[in-house]
Design a protein that fits this description.
The complex is a heterodimer. In chain A, strand 7 and strand 8 form a beta hairpin. Among the domains of chain A are: 4-143 and 451-458, Nucleotidyltransferase, domain 5 (2-Layer Sandwich); 202-291, no CATH class; 463-520, Alpha-Beta Plaits (2-Layer Sandwich), CATH 3.30.70.20. By secondary structure, chain A is of the alpha/beta class. Helices cover 31% and strands 25% of the residues of chain A. Chain A has a 7-stranded mixed β-sheet, with helices on both faces. Chain B is α/β, with parallel strands linked by helices. Chain B has 2 domains: 3-136, Orthogonal Bundle (Methyltransferase, Methionine Synthase (B12-binding Domains), Chain A, domain 1), CATH 1.10.1240.10; 144-270, Cobalamin-binding domain (Rossmann fold), CATH 3.40.50. Chain B has helices spanning 3-16, 18-27, 46-53, 58-69, 72-84, 89-109, 115-136, 157-168, 182-191, 208-219, 235-238, 250-261; strands at 144-150, 172-180, 196-200, 226-229, 244-246. In chain B, strand 4, helix 11 and strand 5 (244-246) form a beta-alpha-beta unit. Residues 34-43 of chain B have low confidence and may be disordered. The chains are: A alpha/beta, B alpha/beta. Chains A and B meet through helix 1, helix 5, helix 13 and helix 14 of A and helix 2, helix 7, helix 8 and strand 2 of B.
Chain lengths: 523, 272
């Protein structure tokens, strides 16, 4: 019998795992989780949770979710496990220092005595992670901010073999890189989860029932809805001008990230969205599925951060938007979104003549390493050779100016004309109206290139629980915005994947007796 | 005037300009801005505002215009010329620089200008004020305020907007920058006549920095509370520690700073 290996990609919004046959190098089956198991909706909240509750708790949660995914993949004999993802998830999984990732400022790092952390790629024994007799392969982070996921994005898209090109992973934390000759400029914009369908009122992850696109018809737009096999099928017909809906086809349950992009694009095309606000709020798709002005603002912040990030990278490299010829779009949103609509909203550099949608590159790198762990050496050498010039957007004046303008436009009601003029004063005039004729190539049909015989989507069953003396009024359970909290027999149980963590704590806040103590909940 | 007509005007505005409408409702100014009787403030054009607020002296007016346009270089050039010709620096600040930002703020209040423009105007004005200060030291203000971003965090867009709007409203704001340890805040507060510290953070991991700073300032009996804001900060969070208040927007910060600096309010007045 051939040996088997599992390749994992741990992302901010979920874990993706694949079982591989080492002999034939084929994918046997795939399993994805609907959420990241650590409480919180973004990496900063994940870090904050790990620091307030102890890194061992976060490590324990992530590890048991990983075990759940691996068990679901039903390996007959597991020789190897390779894991790719951003440095925060990888460090939490391995249980190594995270404080250098938690603080952006030098002062705090100095006062906490946090030194440099070695994140080079390595192969280690899996017993520390509860995988006895299995070797664990972890790829390197280029440095502090540019994790293995960013390396994967550059390596597995074709970006490194190209020139005058840009690559972006459209995730909660949008990693981006620009290549000019031998120089690589990188950055990472905290876009927020709106482009993955989260933090939007009727938002959902890409799954059955999600609106994923809108198609132009003579009398409006047909909403495309994902069916059980995640194929888009026709849904209701929506006329944005008259606000008339004709129900037909598949009934949608929510809107996913690519649907948000399509909706904003259609709203602007039909003058329903003017100067970044929705007229006759909300836009209805069905009676239940609606897109509100506040959702538009949330999406706008995400799209604005990406557009400002792209402009900042080009400014640091000293190239003009016309010179950047190729755009690689990575990640699930980058693969499924309509690239021309995305470009019209500023998610793609407008001067590009070639747009490639390249899928989940992080999982691809994990797969390569699972099949051939010796590639780690090559990656470590590549890592030191990559002369990346990293722009920390948080401390870049250029980014700051641009992002304030984006915020002014998307959330402050600043008209587009005003934004154009302000950009001109920064020497970026015409960026908003530039459109090159672009060819679009899809290098894969799905974000996961090959799913094997089956694709399982699971909710991780990781929970934190605890109990204390209280009257049992249940205000904590009723007040939980995510429905993550339940109670039986005086014990309170939190579904960690749904819980928003330290950014929320409404359970503690709502408790009239001040008995609820989040920090008393344990694995 | 009949209530129906008022409601009609309000409704009309809601449809025509929802952004502005929401802004007004939020700030509770719908009545104040004259839907009832008289010409509404919104109809005043930029020219009219300029006529009201800008100085008559054409040299001074040119400085105000430079501030309004957000042109720092132009402003600095004009101000150094004025100072070179022997003008009083305090007069230049109050009658040439301030009117420019005042018009910008009025326009902002009316929904006709936006945060990026306020920041640019503020930048231009600061250029001019810097030149004047080098001549005379301090210029008169409504009170001394400091702004900082909590230790460990570098995200300062929110803090900058807040500081700019405080400055535009006549406060003397010393910006301690980003990634600021609590001891630096304490040290500055002890050596200067500061009335309020405004702290912000965007990252959830650095929120404890605000708690530490507020408690240290209380422990050392400085009498200086910390007004907290920023993406990671909520009212519920600020309510968990003393010597602090939560301000949701720059305008709320201005209101709080006004009360605290003139001595009529304490931090406890802003807590529920």
């Amino acid at each position: 019998m051939n040996g088997q290996a599992v390749a994992l990609d741990i992302g901010t919004s979920g874990i993706r795992g694949q079982l591989l046959d080492l002999g034939s190098e084929h994918v046997v089956r795939t399993c994805v989780t609907s959420r990241n198991p650590i409480p919180g909706s973004n990496v900063m909240d994940h870090l904050s949770f790990a620091m307030t509750r102890g890194e061992d708790v976060a490590h324990g949660i992530l590890l048991s979710a990983v075990h759940e995914v691996v068990d679901r993949l039903r390996p007959e004999r597991l020789d190897r496990l390779s894991v790719c993802g951003n440095p925060i998830q990888l460090s939490l999984l391995e249980g190594i220092e995270i404080r250098d990732l938690a603080y952006a400022g030098e002062n705090k790092l100095r006062s906490e005595n946090v030194g440099a952390v070695d994140r080079s790629g390595h192969v280690s024994d899996g017993s520390a992670l509860g995988f006895d007799g299995t070797e664990v392969v972890v790829p390197p982070a280029v440095r502090h901010e540019i994790g293995a996921d960013a390396l994967a994005m550059m390596l597995k898209s074709g970006f490194l073999d190209d020139d005058m090109c840009m690559v972006t992973d459209y995730g909660t934390n949008a990693e981006m890189a620009l290549k000019v000759g031998d120089r690589i400029f990188t950055g990472s914009a905290a876009a927020g989860p709106a482009l993955e369908g989260q933090q939007v009122t009727c938002g959902m992850l890409a799954g059955p029932g999600a609106v994923c696109d809108l198609v132009r018809r003579p009398d409006g737009w047909t909403a495309m809805v994902l069916d059980e096999s995640l194929t888009p099928v026709e849904g209701p017909l929506v006329n944005l001008r008259s606000d008339i809906i004709r129900q037909s086809g598949r009934i949608p349950d929510g809107i996913t990230g690519t649907g948000v992009v399509a909706l904003v694009h259609a709203g602007m095309a039909d003058d329903r969205i003017l100067d970044s606000s929705i007229r006759n709020d909300p836009i209805r798709i069905t009676r239940k599925v609606r897109f509100w002005d506040r959702d538009l603002k949330e999406a706008g912040k995400a799209m604005g951060a990406i557009r400002a990030g792209h402009m900042t990278l080009m400014a640091s490299a000293g190239v003009s938007p016309e010179e950047v010829r190729t755009m690689y779009m990575a990640g699930a949103t980058g693969t499924y979104v309509d690239p021309l609509k995305a470009r019209d909203l500023g998610l793609v550099v407008p001067g590009c003549t070639r747009i490639l949608q390249v899928g989940n590159t992080s999982l691809e790198l994990a797969k390569d390493l699972a099949l051939d762990p010796d590639k780690i050496g090559e990656l470590n050498r590549l890592r030191s050779r990559l002369l990346t010039e990293h722009t920390m957007f948080a401390s870049s004046d250029v980014f700051r100016d641009l992002y304030v303008m984006e915020l002014g436009y998307w959330t402050g009601g600043m008209p587009l004309g005003r934004y154009r003029r302000l950009l001109e004063s920064l020497g970026l005039g015409g960026y908003l109206d530039m459109r090159a004729d672009a060819s679009v190539e899809k290098t894969c049909q799905r974000d996961i290139r090959d799913i094997g015989e089956s694709l399982d989507m699971i909710d991780t069953g990781v929970t934190l629980s605890g109990g204390w003396e209280c009257s049992g009024c249940m205000r904590c359970v009723e007040g939980c915005p995510e429905g993550a909290l339940s109670s039986s027999d005086g014990r309170f149980v939190v579904d960690t994947g749904r819980c928003l963590g330290t950014a929320c704590l409404r359970c503690e806040e709502n408790c009239p007796e001040k008995a609820f103590t989040y920090s008393c909940l344990g694995l | 005037m009949h209530m129906d007509i008022v409601m009609q005007a309000v409704e009309e505005m809601r449809l025509k300009d929802p952004v502005r409408f929401n802004q007004l409702v939020e700030e509770g100014m719908a009545m104040e801005l004259g839907f009832i009787g008289g010409p509404s403030k919104k109809q005043k054009s930029v020219d009219k505002l300029k006529k009201e607020i800008f100085p008559e002296n054409p040299d001074y007016a040119a400085v105000s215009q430079g501030v309004l346009d957000g042109k720092r270089k132009v402003v600095e050039e004009l101000v150094s010329k004025l100072l070179g010709s022997g003008k009083d620096p305090v007069d230049v600040v109050t009658h040439a620089l301030m009117p420019g930002i005042q018009v910008q703020c009025e326009l902002y209040d009316m929904g006709m200008s936006y945060v990026p423009e306020i920041l640019m105007s503020n930048d231009a004005m600061q250029g001019g004020i810097g030149l004047c200060q080098s001549k005379i030291g301090d210029v008169p203000s409504k009170g001394d305020v400091i702004s900082f971003v909590a230790e460990g965090d570098l995200h300062d867009i929110g803090k900058n907007i807040c500081a700019a709007i405080l400055k535009a409203n006549g406060f003397k704001v010393t910006d301690l920058g980003r990634d600021v340890p609590k001891d630096v805040v304490l040290d500055f507060v002890k050596k200067n006549n500061v009335k309020l510290a405004c702290g912000s953070t965007l990252m959830s991991t650095t929120k404890p920095g605000l708690i530490d700073t507020a408690l240290l300032l209380e422990l050392e009996k400085t009498g200086v509370p910390v007004a907290c804001g920023g993406a990671a900060v909520s009212k519920a969070f600020v309510d968990t520690f003393s010597n602090s208040l939560y301000t949701k927007s720059p305008l709320e910060t201005v209101k709080a700073a006004t009360g605290i600096c003139d001595g009529s309010k304490k931090w406890t007045d802003f807590r529920s």
